[in-house]
Batch of 3 targets.
Target 1
Amino acid sequence: MQYEQVQETLAVDGSTGTEELEQFLRDWPSSELADDAAYELGRRAAETGENDRAARHLIWAARMHPRGDRIDAVQLLLAEVELERDHIEAAYRTATRIRDSRIPAEDRHRAHVVRARVAAERGEYDLALRWWGRAHGSAPGPEGRDAADAAIDGLVAGLSRQEVERTIRKLDGRFPALRLELRATELALDDGDADRARRHLQNASELGGTNAEKSRLASLQERLSGLGASGPSAAELPSFSDVKPGPSAAGASGTVGVVLPLSGTFAGFGEQCLRGILLAAGVFGSEASGVRVLVRDSGGTPEGAAAAVEQLADDRRVSAIIGPLLASEAEGGAVAADRARVPLLALTGRDSVASSRPYVFRVGREPRGEIQVLVDHAIRKAGLGRFAILYPDDRYGRGARDLFWEEVEASGGRVVGVESYEPGATDFAKQLRDMVGFKLLSEEEKEALEERDDMLAQARRLPDEEALALREEAKAMLGPGEEPLPPIVGFDALFLPDSYEQVTLIAPQLAFNEIGGVRLLGSSGWNHPDLVRIGRHHVDGAIFTETFHSDSEVPYVASFTEAFGEAFGAAPGSLAALSYDAANLVLVQLARGLHSRDSLRQALLDVRAYPGVSGVTSMRSDGTAQKRPYLLGVSKRKIQALD
């Protein structure tokens, strides 16, 4: 069988031609054309995704014809196939043997790309960036240059601060050092390190750059000029009443993916989120919406979320995906989204979801931001300086304790008392008494306190006037050495990171244990009518944060609440508000004409002080949303907005 005959068969019948190629190799393994036949078989197998079969033919060609005229083309294709098979070291060894001068000019771009990808997989980020730089220069057209740019940006965005610093040193000013300097500046600004940010910004300004890079540099210079001494904080974002109207999503068109738990235990939560997204997309508007929403059910599992994200990512019309909701399923979806390079706006509050994943954004509630705003108001507006913490001994309670303590000390206040209780407890007398000085009493002081308790108990059985006189006498009692008896309340405010139900149990017990003049501080979960109905005067003056306040009089929040009520016949909750904001963050970019995944991703990173109904939002350079929540207070037995 002649090779020319096989080629003629291939031109009209690929299947038969492939069989004849394989027969040719069996008949003529030492022929000068055998490497051509093996290469053609490898190429055809790779095109149909049969990578194991492709590798088998290409490895044969490399071993049997190492000096053939097709050896460099064979090595290039084999390196690509080994990379697809996740055989990274084999791909590395093969890629190093490719001689660029022996392959056609149009194939050199492929060689640069495969070397860049292999280096990135091996953690050689400086080498990967250099190869991507060469791939950018060797690209045959704008699509190749755009792909190289996107790869560079994705790689740089995924580097840690230490990796960025190390790679900058190795590149020594070579392309794309400018992008690394800009990334290092962003990370320094996020950390509140003005000196480090200034140093990298100066380096970036000396490297020139494109118009887009110069614009980004100017934006970072503006951020640096506004950096406070203590670094950025949610408390530094404008309040709801001060924020400027946000950009409009009117006229948005495009396709948005949605992944939510719409079946199983958490289906109700997923349905709330979906309602917020559909409202933002204009599904219930009087005019036809240009936004197409593709909804997939995660089933509430990481595997379900990953599969749903992969399916949506395969549709190139999908510019971004909103969801998943739960932390565990968000992790599964995040891995899939980052691999597919599609922006994912995860609705969870877990920071690790976005960590080192350039295409993943965490837009859920931010506990640290809530506590920053609470502490800032307590110290700077309410004039409080000494704090105690009473918390449930569970994961949430311990986390809130640590965040609150850190923020108080960072803001110049002091934590002077800390006690915990078992989750679901109803009696807090021991913790409260320990907190106000009962724990370190002498025997003489304990006896005096018992006498005082007896007097107070007797007063409850006397007529009003006699009871009042006896209570005053009890309060005036002194202990041994004529020292005042406890309680000695050494704090101005008590932080209670628990639900409103627990707060209504704790607040009256403060008064019962003679702890007065103390402001109650809390986190989201207090905003419920029963807080004041049951807590009554015991919760007057309380200050707490909330992720959504449906009674807000801020115009754009009130408009959202009204529109949601008209569409669904109910008031929106925090999940609907959060999802509505996430959708709008995407729709605003679509309205600007940013439909490509890479341009939309960069635009999301540039979000600053966006007026969301679930919080005024800025995006950090690591993809985590920084939010200023609602600040509410109790006055005259009513819950009122403080900002």
Target 2
Amino acid sequence: MKWEKREIPAEQVKALDAKYQCGPITASILVRRGLTGGEDIQYFLEDDPRYLRNPFELSGMEDAVSRILDAKEEGERVLVFGDKDVDGITSTVLVFECLSALGLDVRWQIYQGKPGEPFGLSRRVVEEFAADSGTLIITVDCGIYNLAEVGRANELGVDVIVTDHHNPPLPEDLPAAYAIINPKLPGSRYPFHELCGCGVAFKLVCALRFALRSSFYGQDVSLLNVRAANDAWIIEIAKLRNLALIDKLTETVVPGMVRIGDTRLPAFLEGQQILAWDAPLQTKILGRIFGKAVEIAMLDIAPEIGKEIPRSRGQSLLRLREESRLARYSQGDISELDVFLNLFISFVRKREKLWTAEDVEGLQLACLGTMADIVPLRDENRIIVRGGIESIRAKPRPGIAELLFRLGLAGTRFGSKELSWQLCPVLNAADRMGKPEIAVNLMLEKDASLRDKLAEELAALNDERKKLGEETWSIAEPMAFQNLEGFEGKLALAFGEHINRGITGIIGSRLVKRFNVPALVVAFDGEIATGSFRSVKGYSLRPLLEQCGDLFLDWGGHDYAAGFSMELGRWEEFLERLRTVSAIIEFAQDEGECIQIDAELPRLYLTPEIMDIVERLEPYGEENQPLTFMTRNALISDIGMMGKNGAPHVRLTLDIGNYKWPAVYWQAAEKVPGEFNVNEKVDLAFTMSRNWFNGEGKPQLIITDLKRSAPPTAP
């Protein structure tokens, strides 16, 4: 296996360490991973929920909130309709609980599409809900493809709010919903596009709570500041709505040279509540610029902010800028207006208590949806997952608590790995086995004894899912191998009546790992074929699906995971099209398996404190793989075998510097003694974790690769 440690400029590491005070090893890791911009780095070094992005930056959010509040006021009947996977289940629970707490007449339903029905909202669901006097449907983790179904809802007088995160269709194919909330919409101004469905649902819930808690909901506010610039003055204004920045204006004016009516100020400030830092001073300066006859009505907000943020009391914006944490993560110079804006938002959040225990608990569901849907662990997804894990550790919500107990995780310091590999699959089993409502009921059930029974039922479904998966794999793997040749080695395909459509995605993912090419697994159910596509990194499925789109009843998904349904009578035509399309698939050049090294640790630097860095940069997952270190000349002082069926794994003790390190090397028994042995020195590439026992977590090395050290060179 090749080890690669990318060369990086030492001066860049020093500069980054000096700016963020994160330590030289962390700085080198960030640089090596291409994380050099302040906005990227802040989400690796900060946990505070105030770094979460404002939900009202999402297009359609205020329209959606207003419509839901109208439904509350008018006593309307509302349906929350969600997808059936973990992301959809957590989204459904989150929005349903929020609306129930607000007193709405709300019910929920999970997608359980019958063969031939489109993914997401169906005509049947719409018509049944309309017949039951329903007037508002909120889709979660689905809906972006339901053009016809939303059209039918409109005909029946039912409004639809779509919240989704899947790649949207062409603009002309978007549903005519009352509001669409999706960070991936064409022209979206939302800075981060990779929220999961429950992440989007969480934004909706936060926006609703803001509307009910804050006096600034629906309000237009402008922050004004004037600062000197040589012989001129710079007038800066930030326009906010729902605390989201919607526009900025900068005017440079020489006193006495222009009338205020000849500037853009009157039009920009029309209808605005104007706030200033030290309003008497700002008024005086504006009088110098435009004449004393000009008056701009403004409120001095500095004293009020000082009550909530004492460090700002009596300080100028210029002085506060020097102390600002915002400046640390800014790519360039920050202005006094930037500081003002940050202080004002922090002041409102604190005074109006906009972050409560309800929001912290909501992070638990958003965290599980984020991990289960394998979205990039970058930007605010990191705060969602870190905050969610901490909340689950502190006080797991009903449903999650029962599952943690059954999995043996209750009371342990679990992390993203344990939740992703153990908890999420159990929740997902409800979907795979066609009973997603069990997982929703588990989360919503008030009776603890009934939750225990539902958790037991869910665990049994997971065991059944594992068994079904192994039985299907024994058929799908050889079939896919045989079909590779027909697709020029570029596509692994398994299909037939023997495949359960609930596990097509799981089998597809395993085939990708097995053959390192895109995989398609299709279940035949009556007259309908339902397929799941999974891809390798670097090859987007969208172009392939678009070229077959006319054959599908419906299709959609992500770049690397997608699905479709089609009439079985078109299967042969689809296969011919697939052979043609797959022939032109091109993959990134394969340079062989390569281990990317994040940092080389000299032996004396490899201390237990390194775990602090590992845990600081958690959670790990998509686009943030576990840190991989390397060290040289480690002495193997002990070797033992572990595991069943011939003890395939190796446990080692390594003398490195001043410490003896326990290490695990999976599937490496056959390498002893041929590749390494006791009392030999080795170079190793490894990750790190804690081995928990009796409540104590001791650091250990997980070896990725190991090589005998080169003998010392002669002097």
Target 3
Amino acid sequence: MAIQLASLIRDNIKICSPPAVFRSLNDAVNNRRSSVTDIGNIISEDPGLTVRILKLANSPLYGFPSKIETISKAVLIIGTKQIIDIALATSVVRLFKGLPEDLITMETFWRHSIACGVIARVMAGYRREPNVETFFTAGILHDIGRLIMYTKMPVECRNILYQITKQPQLLFKAEREAFGFDHTDVGGLLLKEWKLPQNLTEAVEYHHNPDKASRCPVEAATIHIADILAHAMQLGSSGEKYIPRLSEEAWAKLSFQTSILPFLFKQASQHVEIAMQIIMPSGK
């Protein structure tokens, strides 16, 4: 019996809607009557999220000269849109628990995802993109489709993982050959169901095929390269055993020189562990 892509999302009540705090924040930001205080109050209703945002704001990842002690100040300094992106990224981590260890270890999965987000954020900052948190969020979410597949079709995914140990192949290509879709399709569909902005959706959906991103090619190219660098640095794993091939078109799209690589590696090495300690629940 063929597996239907849409059923992986719409039959799963747990993940068919984005985290509640993100929905509330998004509604507030889109309401002209909402103030910074209103947005801060929504965040403050979730103590865990409050702590994570304040820790991130005061971490070397941001490098603010003075300590940020309140959520309202964090919203003012970081920005409302950026705060929403951070809230989404850090809240999604808590949606997926209890997956079989022989399929994925959540600590290694999120280490890879957070590493991708950190590298993408550094790349966006280097290019002076207006909202680097969008790239951070896209990096953290880029492999979320794989978690849905592991949740909804563990037997089939287990078979694919076994197959690529016997016949070396990139995991996303093995997924597509077996099912007619891969984790990027699942992740892209989920973000569309959540009605997230297209720059996030395309970055996730096309991070293995960035040339197909018609409206947000820079975001897709950035996550594509950040994913490859995270693999090359062996910062966690989402199940992929091999380093995907770099798209020369994506590299050219960002106008980077190879001389930037030591800088990216250094920034990733410095900040991934810090971000892991802040975002991962209880360090697990």
